[in-house]
Amino acid sequence: MRRFLSGLTLFGVACVCCVPIVAQQDRPRAFDAIRSSDSYRQAVLAVYQDYESSLSTHCAKIEINMNTSQPKVYGSIETDANGNIVNAHWKEITEGVACGEKRLYVASVTIQNGKSSVYGLFPGQSAAAAALQHDAVQYAGAGAGAAGTCQVDVLETSLPNEEPSSPKIPWDEKWTVRACGKRSVVTMHFVPDATSTTINVNPKETVVLP
């Protein structure tokens, strides 16, 4: 977790499953001002680097161009009488390269009651929030047939059936993972209910990559 506005406190993730989106014309001027600020970019870069440091490859340097980064806004952006953002949630999505591997880095950015936070997410298109992604890693490892001692690296996520239209409906994701010296694409089934989200995998659906 990172902060990007001086003196603001971090807080919990905004959603379990995130669904889009607000139109470009609805974005206030403060939105672009925040995204172009040095403190914001440093916070986003830091969570991208934290992700790389967590992998088994421990890549020490990532190559990205924040000027090509794109936001994906969820819900409405609320501002106060002075035009400052008080409530908002979006993803910052940035192409990059780390140790020769291409990435689509993603950070979850939240402002709630004027307080900001930035959380790192797995690369790609996953609709799951940070906490749910973390919980799902063990299932991805099981789907890939990883032994208990192997670290499971989630390298990419995709949505074969597009982004869920509601946080209440089930959705599927394809996760490219590296574990025990091999890469696999594991199909992840997310099934939300009133209180939590169940994660299901079937090893028979897993595709081992060459």
Q: Which word captures the global form?
A: globular
Note the run of SSEs as H and E: HHEEEEEEHEEEEE
Number of strands: 11
Gyration radius (Cα, Å) is 17 Å
Q: What is the straight-line distance between the termini?
A: 35 Å
Mean pLDDT, rounded to whole units? 90
| Estimated structural class | alpha+beta
Pick out the low-confidence regions: 5-14
Report on the biggest sheet.
Answer: 6 strands, antiparallel
Helicity level: 10-25%
Task: Considering the chains and any ligands shown, give keywords for the structure.
210 residues; 18% helix; globular; alpha+beta
Describe the protein in words.
The protein is built from 3 helices and 11 strands. The chain is of the alpha+beta class. The protein has 2 domains: 98 residues, no CATH class; 79 residues. Strands 1, 2, 3, 4, 5 and 6 form a 6-stranded antiparallel β-sheet that branches. Strands 7, 8, 9, 10 and 11 form a 5-stranded antiparallel β-sheet that branches. Strand 4 and strand 5 form a beta hairpin. The radius of gyration is 17 Å and the shape is globular. The two termini are 35 Å apart. The relative contact order is 0.16.
